[in-house]
Amino acid sequence: MDGKIRGQASRRPIRTLDEAAINRIAAGEVVERPASAVKELVENALDAGARRIEIDISRGGKSLIRVRDDGCGIPAEELPLAVSRHATSKIDGSDLVHIESFGFRGEALPSLGAVGRLRIVSRPPEAPEGAMITVEGGRVGAVRPAPARPGTVVELRDIFFATPARLKFMRSDRAEMQAVVDVVRRLALAEPHVGFVLRDPGEDGGRMRELFRADPESGDLFAALAARVRRVLGKEFADNAVPIEAERAGIGLRGHAALPVYSRGAASQQYFFVNGRPVRDRLLHGALRAAYADLLPRDRHPAAVLGITCPPEMVDVNVHPAKAEVRFREPGIVRGLIVSAIRHALAAEGVRNVTTMTSAALGAFRPEGDARSSLPRGFAEGASAGARQAARQWQAPLDVALETPSARAEVPDAEEDGALLDHPLGAARAQIHENYIIAQTREGMVIVDQHAAHERLVYEKLKAQMAASGIARQALLVPEIVRLEADEMARLLDAAEELARLGLVIEPFGPGAVAVRETPALLGEVDAAALLGDILDALNEGCGAGLLEDRLHAVLSSMACHGSVRSGRRLTVAEMNALLREMEATPSSGQCNHGRPTFVSISLEDIERLFGRK
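RE: above sequence
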């Protein structure tokens, strides 16, 4: 510090910055890191009509970024314009609303040339030969002939060499490369009919390493997107996602949203596209979170690939230098469309099993030793290989009686039992540890957490009552008095009107206490003190959301926990089957109010594999 106070600095004359400084300032807005440069260059290739794009990256893009496409190319006489600011072929400047291309500012190429060593080689298909131009630290070279295939190759070396201060803010090669992979993945999801290859040629010209590949998909856009999602995000996501397709007020929504129990520890698998443009928009991320509001715990994040289409005049894509954010003319319609479409799609899935849960269950059953073995560790120590093989091939009859059963089971009626097996959750066979229902289906077995399942059922009934005519209440013969801290009491009384809508009537009862006079009838007998404690937690968690509906649902969720079948309660076969049938008829019954799974199904084939039968 030189000791000067900012307000005491001497006045300096106003002057126009030189072209090099202007380009470097623009580069600071457009090119934050190598991944930003890759994004701009690949979007240019897509705007040029490319059907195949190859990207080569060295040291995370710090030393080399090369993008090759088979698009329409740039004529030799236009190359100097291509590297000058605010020159573009994508708009004519008279209409900044109807923008249907990725790029339109005309800043990317001159910005890259201002901070690195840029070389462009291009040839339109009708041209007899290609042409080349270079820009190094803002200095533009002459156009020269160059051999080239139809299309364009843009090569950027030594990014930020002209602005060394920016290099200090670069992350490790691995981190920068991961950011590049993420950019290419997003663009590949946006354009499923285009092929993408991302490679690392290495610094010493060694073996080329392929980092990402997505070959062009066929079929209509929806079919191509489904195939690209499976290719890019993997089989696990595709198997646990539901298709989304909806439209409202001229705005379309298409894509895939994962089931709630397929959730992530971070928002890393959330991809949004607006008219084909990948964006990171707070409105869209917030809407996705709201769609899963009562299906996920607060520390888990949904996974989805969602594309929004709308007339260009309904969205402003010019609100961010890197075009990463957008602004909708009718944000409420967009948010409501996302929330309702995902909720309806998830509800329509019913009691669908999730493959990740099955894999986890099988992993828990699998022996700790040889993963291929069906015998527990130490079971056959000292036995010969022949004996172990015989144990797998032959099943001897059990010749001892089990006097004390470890689980409750009843023999059901044969005809009724046969019909129950055809239901998704099958026929109840037993209850173990007074909390888990074992059911048999035609294809395998199902394990149900009775408390978690019933908690979701009660919650959905409370929501339905509130939406219809208000939640039915039961008056307590003797009001229950609950003592509270002053701030807790004030918090509850401030929400008394909301709580009354939910069937809970409270009123002050002297200093530091409230009287509970009525409770929701659906809950039956409840512990009022415990219920109010959970409601206080829900109010504190939901107060930041700002939406009354979110707060009410948070409270309903807490109430549902108090009205559900408790762990430790023994159920008859009829009660267990009734619970299974109600789960099948209730939306979102595959997970409880806290986002945990309510059941796991295991196929007969997997069971037989566990025991070495297959």
